[in-house]
Amino acid sequence: MKTEKKERKEKTEEKKQTEEKKAPRPANVSPYQLDKTQTLKAARALLKHLAAEATSSDKPNLLNDPEDPTESAAPIWLVLTAKKYITDTRKLKPSRVELPFPLKNPSNTTVCLIVKDPQRHYKDLVATAGLQDIVTKVVGIGKLEKKFKSFESRRQLMGSHEIFIADQRVIPKLPTVLGTTFLRRTAKIPLPIALDSSETPAGFKAKVEKTIRSTYVHLSPAASTNIRVGLSSMTPEQVVDNVAQVMDTMTLKALPGGWRNVRSLFIKSPNSASLPIYMAAELYGDEDVLKPEEEQQRLLAMAEKAAERKERKQAKNAKRKGLSETKPVDEEKAAEEEGQAPKKKTKVSAEEKK
């Protein structure tokens, strides 16, 4: 009986081995890439959930436009988590990714253009390029500083346009000019565009339309970021193509380390759970482990930073107590060093004090 069982086991194992040999194996398949099959499954499940959520609501949405469903469509976000920090500093200028299926339609989007003075040149450029219906307002940085000082005026400006595009030469001034009214919401942060005085109408129109068709990645000192990649009115295949385009651009240009630095990817809507589409097999590799000499350099750098922080703290405490940074000079010691006789302190009587 035992010999028969062993023979059966050996036969089944041989069959498995032959089947594995016959099965075609993909050549040079890297685990560091987007699985489009899993992404398609997640996109279908998420869009199905959003459709059921829209039909199950008792109150109808009065903002729904049957001619343009993108106006009231829910956004779909890609949540990217990295193994290391994506950047060390907060970048005011976002990274641009042109999507194959844009989130905004350039023909029916209202744009406010913020330019360098004088603004008359760019107003004429908008007219000659035929963008009056899209770029409904052109304002120079000087006029923006003078006219929109109050919180109420800035709030009205923010609500009157869907997208704000700014000449990249004036972007460093915008945080002080616009304030937290705009910077608090990433959807209203002005998008950068490269303009100059020798801009042609055709080139200007192409740049504006490309800016509207793109999505933007706002990077900050963190290991995760959210990127808008789709709408609930899109098909699952369109969402997958947008996600693939975003990841190709991010891993090549914005993400240090490329795919090896990606820890996980999820897609979600504002009110849904996050659906996973990628999980890294390894959280760290051999290149992430420091060598003894590198570890020693890291500890020395940390000690130097700690000493600098301690010195700054002591200086601040001294200023708060009203103490001067220089020590008081001892006159007797200074005279002895110069070889002169120290000055004798004369006693002053009470009558002289009076």
Question: If you average the pLDDT, what whole number results?
Answer: 79
Helical fraction equals: 40-55%
Number of helices: 12
Determine the N-to-C terminus distance: 126 Å
**CATH fold naming of the domain at 32-56 and 64-91 and 219-284:** Ribulose 1,5 Bisphosphate Carboxylase/Oxygenase
Identify the notable features of this structure and list them briefly.
Rossmann fold; Ribulose 1,5 Bisphosphate Carboxylase/Oxygenase; Ribosomal_uL1_3-a/b-sand; four-stranded parallel beta sheet; four-stranded antiparallel beta sheet; 12 helices; 354 residues; alpha/beta
General description of the model:
Residues 1-36, 300-354 are annotated as: Disordered. It comes from Sphaerosporella brunnea. The protein has 354 residues and is an alpha/beta fold. Among the domains are: 32-56 and 64-91 and 219-284, Ribosomal protein L1/L10, rRNA-binding domain (Ribulose 1,5 Bisphosphate Carboxylase/Oxygenase); 104-214, Ribosomal protein L1/L10, domain II (Rossmann fold). It is built from twelve helices and ten strands. The strands form three sheets. It has a four-stranded antiparallel β-sheet. A four-stranded parallel β-sheet has the order 4-3-5-6. Strands 2-7 form a two-stranded antiparallel sheet. Helix 2 (36-56) crosses helix 9 and helix 3 crosses helix 8 (201-213). The protein is flat, with a radius of gyration of 33 Å. The N and C termini lie far apart (126 Å).
Protein topology:
Blueprint: H1 2-22, H2 36-56, E1 75-82, E2 95-98, E3 111-115, H3 120-129, E4 135-140, H4 141-147, H5 151-159, E5 163-167, H6 174-178, H7 180-183, E6 191-193, H8 201-213, E7 214-217, E8 224-231, H9 236-254, E9 262-268, E10 275-279, H10 292-320, H11 331-338, H12 350-353
Parallel strand pairs: 3-4, 3-5, 5-6
Antiparallel strand pairs: 1-8, 1-9, 2-7, 9-10
Helix pairs in contact: 2-9, 3-8
